[in-house]
């Protein structure tokens, strides 16, 4: 592990960004071009040219199981050379070493705000594992009242959006704050501010109204897939119903199969169910989340593109005076971290209590540190505004 600190400038070299094969997806299941294969959709972002994946008899051989095992960090790891459990002191040491590369955003707060001075900050937040702790039952991933008020406060000072893997309706129901923008299904369902130039540029972007009747720009680049995802969801529900602990969710533009509560000996069966579905739908592909397999449309769209879309919608693109900050904990958040890092544009902050490979720039240990970070931003901004007012008087 490289121990050199990288916190001298907001964005440095990308530490070997994650790619599909490293996420455990066998190359034979990765999308590749073959003209004329798959339906032709009209949307600007649909790039369905994938051939059916080769038949794999055993999901063990294609890397899915390895990816499933590593998809949420174990609390303790075995030290193979000594055949003993790594002590918590060892884990803490490993975490401290990792912090040199991905410094705590709390400890680096002064540095962050000195870079943010005279810039307009835009905040992008993931939900699960970031605003709410990871729990066994996805329906019980409740955000605390103090986190809700921290997010509400932050939205008073900075444009703030939630970008979640859940459906937009579900994440709105969980967060319940009208002052935010919401993107569901990993950014495939965005309700952003009205911006006429944006809707003209993007197909599938229409004027719409939100839950409270407020007008916004609704962007759904995978609209054509709604019926297909619903069908896939129903099949998954049927095919996994005998697997104890399995849970399937329909997020409208993607479907999730949770195996957190499934005995590990049954994980191959879960993987096989998902694998069998993907064989029938070459227009869809797999991504791995935290103890969850997700089936998504094969379109060129992700949380990173959603961040770009929202920045543009907010009228903040093409400006050096903008500092986007994305806070997330999941592999799907890496797309957003990469967009900010590669464009030298802002800060990705990974929420993790264990060392992880990431394209984020800073880290926070858990949702309670996320809350502290958001509150610190609010305190700093308030003070800055008070000082400006005092100077004007
Ligand atoms: O992008 P996110 O907002 O982080 O959503 C990602 C997934 O979050 C949920 O699952 C995860 O959190 C659950 C509750 O803590 C946990 O039980 C599960 O194991 C995690 O994978 C959600 O249920 C998924 O559909 C989202 O894709």
Automatic annotation (TrEMBL):
Associated pathway: Glycan biosynthesis; trehalose biosynthesis
Cofactor or coenzyme needed: a divalent metal cation
One GO biological process term: trehalose biosynthetic process
Keyword Oxidoreductase in record: no
Keyword line: Hydrolase, Stress response
EC number(s) given by UniProt: 3.1.3.12
Family recorded in the similarity comment: Belongs to the trehalose phosphatase family.
The protein's role, per its UniProt record: Removes the phosphate from trehalose 6-phosphate to produce free trehalose. Trehalose accumulation in plant may improve abiotic stress tolerance.
The name this protein goes by in its record: Trehalose 6-phosphate phosphatase
